[in-house]
Amino acid sequence: MKSTKKYGKKIDLALSLFVKLTRAHDTFEHLTAANIREAGLTPAQFGVVECLGHKGSMLIGDLTKKHFVSGGNMTVVVDNLEKEGVVRRSVNKEDKRAFFVQLTPKGKRLFKTIFIPHAHYIAKLASVLTEAEQAELGRLLKKLGTELERIG
Questions:
Q1: Is 59 part of a structural domain of the chain?
Q2: What does the pLDDT read at residue 1?
Q3: Could you tell me the CATH number of the domain that includes residue 108?
Q4: Is residue 147 in a domain?
Q5: Per-residue confidence band for 118, with pLDDT thresholds at 50, 70 and 90
Q6: Count of domains for the chain
Q7: No. of H helices and E strands in the chain?
Q8: Residue 141 sits in which domain range?
Q9: What integer is the mean pLDDT of 107-114?
Q10: How far apart are CA 132 and CA 118, in angstroms?
Q11: Tens digits of per-residue pLDDT, 69-87?
Q12: Whole-prediction pTM
């Protein structure tokens, strides 16, 4: 017996989708965050190292937008990575108020050490779905996100 009240087929379907999507996201995020912590980083720090490892030097504001965190939070993350010698900042010559962030040689080594094992871990988690199911879910999630951004 279902524990949810019936609100009509369309609403019940949407609520069920929301709950399943949220639970899957939370579980996936919990497992990947634990894997990241094993590498000695927070998920936010890993996100910065991963992004800079793939994209190269970026403005701190662009990192903030990519990771959906506030500027203050990103500043703390970058400060901590800088203290560890993983990243360095440089002033944007076009706008002295903005800073570029880039990986140091230590940060590049860290990226090379941690990213591939983490990618394999994600592939292992995703393998509960077939490759065709992964591709279809990816397509559907992209459509959902794109359309929600458009109407939101």
A1: yes
A2: 45
A3: 1.10.10.10
A4: yes
A5: very high
A6: 1
A7: 6, 3
A8: 42-151
A9: 97
A10: 22
A11: 777 788 899 999 999 999 9
A12: 0.83
